[in-house]
Each structure stands twice: as structure tokens, then as C-alpha cells.
Design a protein that fits this description.
This protein is of the alpha+beta class and about 230 residues long. It is about 30% helix and about 30% strand. It has four helices and twelve strands. The chain has a five-stranded antiparallel beta sheet. The protein has a five-stranded antiparallel beta sheet with strand order 5-6-7-8-9, covered by helices on one side. β1 and β2 form a beta hairpin. It is globular, with a radius of gyration of 22 Å.
Length: about 230
């Protein structure tokens, strides 16, 4: 026997509406601080889901003579954030007649990210360069501006693969009877290249090319090497 139900009492499926303006576009960045230099490596793949949007997008930008900025995450926010930072750096240079130091740039980035903490830039950043005393420095961030000075750091889609290797090879963790001698810039550059070659075998969002930038008091030197492109 059929039961008639009035229209107002029908049970309708629940509809859920979400607002999520971000996208994860993959990629990885590695930064290592040396005695008087810093090395920053990144891949050049820009992807979304299982689609590759571009094979030639660098994730490291030269901001000043002494500082590089590495950004991964939502590419739209990367472009917006870097455009704002470049504007503030130009304003600082016109006002003071000199480039902003690497430490000051790190603090400015922290304040910029914290200002947007309630609707944050979906970007993981790293600042690397040479500080006022001529030593290499690396600053790592979370998306809302908390930052820390470190000797090395990885961020991005392959960070879970890369960071343990950095801890072992550069932090000498889980090793015994080792001599923690400082590494040369050539040795660090080769290590970063090998790290990205290994990461591209396991992470589909890292690949195509690795761009390695070495910054010291004389400027920035950049080289590219191929990675797997499938």
C-alpha cells in the first residue's frame, strides 16, 4: 500500500556548499646555508592534480643582491605575494638609498604573512642569502608568518622525502664518529642536484628540471639540470 507524503514533509538530500579558493600546484624548494654562501634549489614543474600546467616555472626569485626567495604552494598567491614584496623592496631602496638586508627582508616577509593570517597566502616560503656579517643564512616559514633561522630546510610536495636526507647528510643525525666539517659550495650544489634527482623518482609533482642558485657576496650564479619529465 503506497503512503502519500505531502510535499513540505519530503526529506531532501543534504547539500553542502564549500568555499575553498586555494589550489596546490606542487613543487619543492631546498635551501642550505654555508660559511659564506647559500645554495637554493627548486624544480620547474607546475602542476594541479594529475595535470602538468607548465614545465618551466622557477620557484626561486632574486629579491636583492644578498637575498633569494623560494615559494611553493598556490601559484596565484605566489605571484601576488612576490609582487607585493618587490614593491616594498623598491620603496625601501628609494627611501634609504640601499638594498634591504637579508635579515630585514626575512622580518618583512614574516610581518606580511602574519597580516594576512585570517585569509592567508597559501604559500610556503624560504629566504636564503648572506647576512650582514657575511655568513650564509636560511629562514623557513609557515603560511602565517612564523619563521626560524636554520642551516638547511626543504619545503613543498617532496619535503617529507628530502628533509630526512638533509638531516642525515648535513645535520649528521643518526650517525656516529663523523667529523662535521663545513661543505664547499660545489659539494652542496652536487648534493642538492642528487637530492632532486631522487625526489623526482618518488614525487609526481617534482620534476622536469632542477634550478640551483648559489648566492654569496659577489652575486648569484644559477644553473639548470634535467630531471625526469614523466
Amino acid at each position: 500500500m503506497a503512503v502519500l507524503v505531502d510535499e513540505p514533509y519530503k526529506v531532501h538530500p543534504t547539500l553542502e556548499h564549500r568555499f575553498f579558493p586555494y589550489s596546490q600546484n606542487g613543487g619543492s624548494v631546498v635551501a642550505v646555508a654555508g660559511e659564506d654562501f647559500a645554495v637554493v634549489g627548486c624544480d620547474t614543474r607546475l602542476s594541479e592534480g594529475y595535470s602538468i600546467l607548465s614545465r618551466d616555472v622557477s620557484k626561486v626569485r632574486k629579491m636583492t643582491k644578498s637575498g633569494l626567495l623560494g615559494c611553493v604552494g598556490f601559484h596565484g598567491d605566489v605571484l601576488t605575494l612576490t609582487k607585493m614584496l618587490e614593491s616594498r623592496l623598491k620603496q625601501y631602496k628609494h627611501t634609504h638609498g640601499k638594498d634591504m638586508s637579508c635579515e630585514a627582508m626575512a622580518q618583512m616577509l614574516s610581518a606580511t604573512l602574519y597580516y594576512r593570517r585570517f585569509f592567508p597566502y597559501w604559500v610556503y616560503n624560504m629566504v636564503a642569502g648572506v647576512d650582514n656579517s657575511g655568513k650564509g643564512c636560511v629562514f623557513s616559514y609557515d603560511p602565517v608568518g612564523s619563521y626560524e633561522r636554520e642551516s638547511y630546510r626543504a619545503c613543498g610536495s617532496a619535503s617529507a622525502i628530502i628533509q630526512p636526507l638533509l638531516d642525515n647528510q648535513l645535520g649528521y643525525k643518526n650517525q656516529s664518529n663523523v667529523d662535521p666539517t663545513p661543505l664547499s659550495r660545489d659539494r652542496v650544489s652536487k648534493m642538492v642536484r642528487d637530492i632532486f634527482a631522487a625526489a623526482s623518482e618518488r614525487d609526481i609533482y617534482t620534476g622536469d628540471e632542477v634550478e640551483i642558485s648559489v648566492i654569496d657576496k659577489n652575486g648569484v650564479e644559477t644553473h639548470r639540470f634535467p630531471l625526469r619529465s614523466d
